[in-house]
Specification:
2 copies of one chain form a homodimer. Chain A has helices spanning 2-10, 26-39, 44-52, 63-87, 93-102, 104-136, 144-161, 163-193, 214-224, 233-236, 245-274, 284-293, 297-330, 348-364, 373-398, 403-427, 429-432, 434-460, 484-495, 510-523, 540-556, 582-594; strands spanning 472-478, 500-507, 528-533, 559-569, 597-604. By secondary structure, chain A is an alpha/beta fold. The first copy, chain A, folds into 2 domains: 24-451, Amino acid/polyamine transporter I, CATH 1.20.1740; 472-604, Rossmann fold (3-Layer(aba) Sandwich), CATH 3.40.50. In chain A, strands 3-2-1-4-5 form a 5-stranded parallel sheet, with helices on both faces. In chain A, strand 4 (559-569), helix 22 (582-594) and strand 5 (597-604) form a beta-alpha-beta unit. The longest helix of chain A has 34 residues, at 297-330. The relative contact order of chain A is 0.13. At the A-B interface, helix 18, helix 19, strand 4, helix 22 and strand 5 of A face helix 18, helix 19, strand 4, helix 22 and strand 5 of B. Chains A, B: It comes from Paenibacillus oryzae.
């Protein structure tokens, strides 16, 4: 029944050799891997204006040079990542690059911050998208958190069904979003070109404004670069591409870069030219759309599609997080289960973990996860900086043909990313300090996990010295009463023809004990019975004491002790509540605390 | 560590023969078993005035005859219960009496409603007491629910420590409450006797008031009789008394009856004479105390002690609920675990269940459980009526010396209780209807549980036809790799000298499968290896299919199949998260779904 429900929700299991069919073509990959990056134009440009607003509306013209700076940074990042895709066609992105080129610790810093970042991606995007919807339908506003959780659950399910199936669903909204924003930008430019917009609405370009210093400008730049989060997603996901994977990935990356640049530049320019001030309750895109088309069909289309892409941006996290977890699991830094493929060939444990953790974040922040945006941005630029630095070193070491240009691109990328990180720490220290706590903590956990796996691996490896051989067996059967369950276990124990067979009865009361001895002697005269008196009414304590004594004796003669537990199995699961679980407790206790072999002989009630 | 914490919280385990020391003497029993009944004078008299207030202040004089009616009912109940105590010295109260004299169904009605009632006792009393405290310290008001839950948890712990220990703690507040109320009553009478109270404050006695009909009067009477809830507690708890149990219990009952009557009558009379109208935000007792002593030390003493006794009234539920559950468990109507004594010889499962259920109620009603009072009262009078009816029949059947008087007392008790129940259903149907839902539902559950226990008992009883004997054994060892864990299991399997030993390896990929076969042939040439290919990456499915086939073959020859699971046991519990739990899953699956004997051979990492 449970497995039927599972099948209905995530589809029938797929065979391992059906893997190829689950791979992505470029059109789908662009939709699935870019929604995070593209959706950030919905809030990136606005961040620039919010910072500039501190110096008054006259300072808005600075948004144009700042926007150019962001576009420059985007170009550098795209070019740098293009080189990473070719150099690491097996995927892995920042973690793999930093680990191979810089060493384990930089790798773990990159991997750890990306891992946390993808969780933030999901929580932040879904919360923002939900906000957009509930702003449109105010009656839903108080249900923000449950709605966001519902979305996360739906996206998790889609991803458990498998990559391409979810990509088909994701493809339409992503392209619709690009289309809607292009219509908006062209419409706006048309209005400007035809003189429908008064040219005096915006401040004069190039006039220095009092109060605008370097601090404010770099802060605005860093804020604007939050529009670039998500650019790295493709580098983690190359193995999901159809062959030739690297080439297809690069083309997808370039297409994404161009789209991102066009949309970002268009929105920023219209906002500047229209002279729009950021308002807390209305988004910049909404203001632009309303000025351009009025509150008509096109306006609502743009708003709706924006909300949708924000929610779907979460999906980028779902394709990148599990792949990163696989890479970390291969190096034994996270539990091995993250590298197992599920029924539908996705890395289901990673997908489920991501869903659960982002739901926890959404609940903890009551859906107000927007304040995590700076944290999220700095968490992206740290691995950017590390992977570009790694690439720079790689070119320096290997010096392939044309290495000077490659080195230049990656070095500039590294420097630019590092600068953004430093700007964040200098201009927004109160918002990004948690990075300094969770990153080291996460790395300690990674190292502890690897330490454990290594110790276990060493301990279990077959060595020259064999395990001591077993000379004989002592079988102990705890008996609670004179029933068919016990009879079945005794029959089984006898069939093993062991050297010693002992039945043990724990009694709380002397009279019952005596009566049991008499009945036993009549029923099973050939099986030796030991009765244990338990003044504290515990079954496990006296039993384990007795077993300890037997094991000490047996061990001296290289005998092994086996406890045979007669287990009554009721017909229905809930019936277990009506029976004491001594058998189960004893089983766990003996295995984990006592190193005793435990055999369970089930007895099913005849139907 | 866990067991240390347990020891610290509830004390060291006691031996079964230390039971006598845990029994109650009369002084402690009065405190522990009467706090429920006594505390109800804190709200009982007020209920009468609230109903009469509907007809105006002139109608308050009716409270005197109504109060006399309640006292008469109290006398009848005390006398009736006195007879029950002598007739049923082994305890059990309404459930046992009704079951023996009237049959199983009336017994279950009585038992079921008492069971629910004790949960209500705890929830209602603790909520009311918490209200009293947070009314005094308004800053705590918004934490009502967590504070109430904390109190329930503390009382639960005290009861897990054991009866007499908690009785010692309970004794002081209970006696302090009686003392405080006696001081209040004497003080009030003194003021009246010395003429400090104007005699004209109250309405004229005996003047009929328009609008006061029979309906209003019986409603006021039923409301006032809510002061009698808790009277039955002693009858359930006789086995907790020191010998001679019945006699000690009867004396305690009489003492409680007298105290209850004095306090109830005193409060009611003062309220009438002072001419006090009930006010929603201030209790009647508070008003009387303020008028008598002013807002001084004595006033705050009375208020504080009242709050305390209300919280401790919950404790009555804790001594009665587990005893009732034991009686129901003996007859197999509730799970057997309710009849097992815990470390401190109390029936810990009953105590814990009561604590949890009342916390659930408190949370569900957000601490506003006062609206459950009518439900609670009707739930008490149903078993009153049933047990008195049972006693009436008993005297009719047995006709012992002086049976006519005994019959008379119990018949009047039965009739009076039944009348109260009927009045509740007629005058407050909207508040007591849930009884008609949960009582039948509870009885169905009782019967289902007994049905299950009976079926199991029949199924497990040793019969003439013996279980088929076992001719030989087939041992199957699932092997995941070539490790010391597997080596240990194979050594053990060989030592059992079974007829067949087969190692099974599940592989997800053909190359790995081939490599494994080669390595195996080298490592364990004498153990037959079967490899299973699992295209869907499940381990349990192909394994269970294979085991099914083996079992079919083996069963035909009266062979039994045993699956030997090599189980790696990590050093620390949390390490289990880092290893897959296939062994555990396989164990559960084979036992519960497949009727296969499962042996687990643990392998502990050398320290």
């Amino acid at each position: 029944m449970l497995s039927d429900a599972k099948k209905w929700l995530i589809g029938k299991p797929l065979k391992s050799n059906e893997l190829g069919e689950q791979k992505l073509n470029k059109r789908k990959a662009l939709a699935i891997l870019s929604s995070d990056a593209l959706s950030s134009v919905a809030y990136g440009p606005e961040q620039v204006f919010i910072v500039l607003a501190a110096a008054g509306a006259a300072a808005y013209w600075y948004s144009i040079p700042i926007g150019m700076g962001v576009l420059l940074l985007l170009t550098v990042l795209i070019l740098s990542y293009r080189q990473i895709l070719y150099a690491y066609p097996q995927g892995g992105g920042a973690y793999v690059v930093a680990k191979e080129q810089l060493g384990v610790y930089p790798g773990l810093i990159a991997g750890g911050s990306l891992l946390v970042d993808y969780i933030l991606t999901v929580a932040v995007s879904v919360s923002a998208g939900t906000d957009a919807i509930t702003s449109a339908i105010p009656i839903l506003h108080e249900y923000n958190v449950p709605i966001a959780i519902l979305f996360v659950m739906v996206i998790t399910l889609l991803n458990l069904r498998g990559l391409t199936e979810s990509a088909s669903i994701m493809a339409y909204p992503a392209y619709l979003f690009v289309l809607a924003l292009l219509i908006l930008i062209i419409g706006g430019l048309w209005r400007i070109a035809t003189g429908q917009e008064p040219p005096g609405a915006h401040g004069t370009f190039g006039v220095p404004v009092a109060g605008v210093g370097l601090f404010l400008l770099v802060k605005a730049f860093a804020s604007g670069s939050s529009a670039l989060t998500g650019v790295e997603a493709i580098s983690n996901a190359i193995p999901n591409f159809k062959a030739p994977a690297a080439q297809n990935a690069v083309r997808t990356l370039l297409a994404m870069g161009i789209l991102l640049a066009v949309l970002f530049a268009g929105i920023l320019f219209l906002a500047y030219y229209y002279g729009i001030s950021p308002r807390p309750e209305v988004t910049l895109v909404s203001d632009i759309a309303e000025r351009t088309f009025g509150r008509g069909f096109v306006y609502y289309l743009i708003q709706g599609v924006t909300a949708l892409i924000l929610i779907l941006a979460a999906n980028t996290g779902y394709s990148a997080f599990p792949m990163l977890a696989v890479n970390l699991a291969k190096d034994k830094f996270v539990p091995r289960m993250f590298s197992a493929r599920g029924d539908r060939l996705g890395y289901s444990n990673g997908i489920i973990a991501l869903g659960l953790l982002s739901i926890v974040l959404i609940i903890a922040f009551q859906g107000r996860t927007e304040r995590l945006i700076p944290l999220y941005a700095v968490g992206v630029f740290i691995p950017f900086a590390l992977s570009q630095t790694g690439m720079t070193l790689k070119w320096l070491r290997e010096k392939p043909k044309g290495w000077a240009l490659k080195l230049g691109i990656n070095a500039i990328g590294a420097l630019a990313s590092l600068t953004v990180v430093l700007i964040f720490f200098v201009t927004k220290p109160t918002q990004v300090w948690p990075v300094l706590i969770f990153l080291p903590a996460l790395i300690v956990v990674f190292l502890l996990i690897r330490g454990h796996y290594r110790a276990v691996g060493d301990g279990l490896r077959i060595s020259e010295e064999h395990e001591p051989s077993i000379e004989g067996n002592v079988l102990i059967v705890p008996v609670a009463g004179i029933t068919k369950v016990v009879e079945g276990s005794l029959n089984y124990a006898r069939s093993l023809a062991a050297d010693h067979l002992i039945a043990v009865h724990v009694s709380f009361d002397r009279e019952e004990e005596e009566a049991f001895r008499v009945k036993w002697a009549e029923w099973q005269p050939d099986v030796r019975l030991v009765t244990l008196h338990s003044p504290y009414r515990s079954i496990i304590q006296p039993l384990s004491k007795f077993i300890d004594v037997m094991q000490r004796k047996a061990g001296a003669a290289n005998y092994r002790v086996t406890v045979i537990i007669p287990q009554f199995v009721p017909k229905k699961g809930w019936h277990n509540m009506l029976h004491n679980q001594s058998g189960f407790l004893l089983h766990t206790y003996l295995l984990y605390r006592r190193d005793i072999i435990v055999t369970t002989v089930p007895y099913h009630l005849p139907k």
